[in-house]
Amino acid sequence: MMLSAWRTRVRRCTSLAAKRAKMVPDDGKTVADFIRPRAAGSGPVPDVAMSPTLTFNADRDPIAVPETRSFFIETYGCQMNVSDSEIVEAVLINSGFKRADSVTAADVVLINTCSIRDNAEEKVWSRLYELRALRGRRRGTAVAVLGCMAERLKERLLERDQLVNVVVGPDAYRDLPRLLSVARDGTSAVNVLLSLDETYADIAPVRPASNRVSAFVSIMRGCNNLCSYCIVPYTRGRERSRNADSIISEIQDLSREGFKEVTLLGQNVNSYNDVTGADRGTFTIKDFNLSNPGFSQKTKRASRMGIRFPELLRRCAEVDPEIRIRFTSPHPKDFPLELLQVVAEYPNVCKALHIPAQSGSTSVLERMKRDYSREAYDDLIATVRDKIPGCSLTSDFISGFCGETEEDHHMTLDLIRKTGYTHAFMFAYSQREKTHAHQYLLDDVPDDVKSRRLREVTETHHDLARSNAMRNVGSTQVVLVEGDSKRSSEFLAGRSDSNVKVVFPKIELHGDCDVSKSVPRPGEYVVVNIDSATQRSMVGTPVRRTSLQAVGNDLSMASQFQLNFRPILG
Q1: What's the fold here for domain 3-35+65-191?
Q2: What is the pLDDT of residue 50?
């Protein structure tokens, strides 16, 4: 259909197939329409452009929920999807929907999806076919697909065996109540418009009552990096940062509610840049040390600099010294010395950094468009070790990327051995449509070679992680109690500063200044001496209840409160 036919403000009920209608908001553009054509001779990196946010206008389009309907959300993928599901729940509850206790009791089933790899999408397709049987038994049940698959595969979702009623992209969750109302008469409803400014900053997420200890706080959305293998910029759109004041306000609310851990979320969390304040945005890029030597920035930076991530992290840490602060997922190019200094300075900023390498080969990193060399990454790790002693590191690795040779693969194994990661997310390369790699590179590593290399990467990491874990026996950890151990109600479980699970007996303990004893409760900190350790967890003897401020004031003891993960050289 020609783009010139899509000029009206809202186009409804256009036929997708003979027996099926769909509703698309605004001009009905697909993700492809948000990729500007490249001029002759231009580089291969696409420039993603987006339409402004579509908001529902009750005067223009008065569709209301006619009666109370129930919903159930299933979430697949990353922490950002978990956070988005909490936003979706808030939107629906504020519009008169109620949460169902199970899929079978829901009028609307919402599937929040991931598109990062083929197997992630296959899980969703399998689930949608299972839900088709439910819809056959319970007439009137609607199924909505949210998130990255909705953005990437909207037409296929509606056409394939009539599995879905509603398709909603990550920037259109405010529109869900209206779309669900439209879909009640059998009409399909779609809104996958990407936004230049949607951050959902004004929506208070509905967090699960079962977890009042840890919370995710989304600080930005989208990504400008355009790594050649990654679909995220096409499903999540351009970077836009939340107003810093709204983030601080949300953490203050969490503090009042008794939460003890906050994870700051973003597709590229450490490129955060808030320019919303009247007194911000007056600096140029040259006024900021955005990265370290050896890292480059090929994609366009924001022309104005406001509150950057190191300053935001500092403000978050100062809200409540008893709340641990974590952040994910960062990019290695956005770790300036200022950021490392904030992590080192504040006791409640966890000394655990995710620094995704993806490969240990400079040539592979160049094809991935990661904007750094192996040498630059090694230098960053050395700087982290120097500025934050004992800091644990985690990473991501892709095996079998386009053009990867055996030599490239062995460079990745070498990086894993030399760095000594606490944990790593490891996958075989899965080509995604619309990415630079899909358009310009050859997926030339055979599947059996990918599998073999992934197995070697996994085994190398696990062997080293097990060896490093044993070094923690005899160490002292500060553990944030989450609740009873899943294996026994006679034990408590929590997480160390380095985000490793720690299990210990549920017994009464003194506090730092308490003469009386009590059993530690979820949300309290406990000093634990580690007796045994595996790659994934540790078991120890509890010593006393404590606080982060008490730990921070005891410098001699604080030096022990780190996982002792050290690199293996040679």
Answers
A1: Rossmann fold (3.40.50)
A2: 39
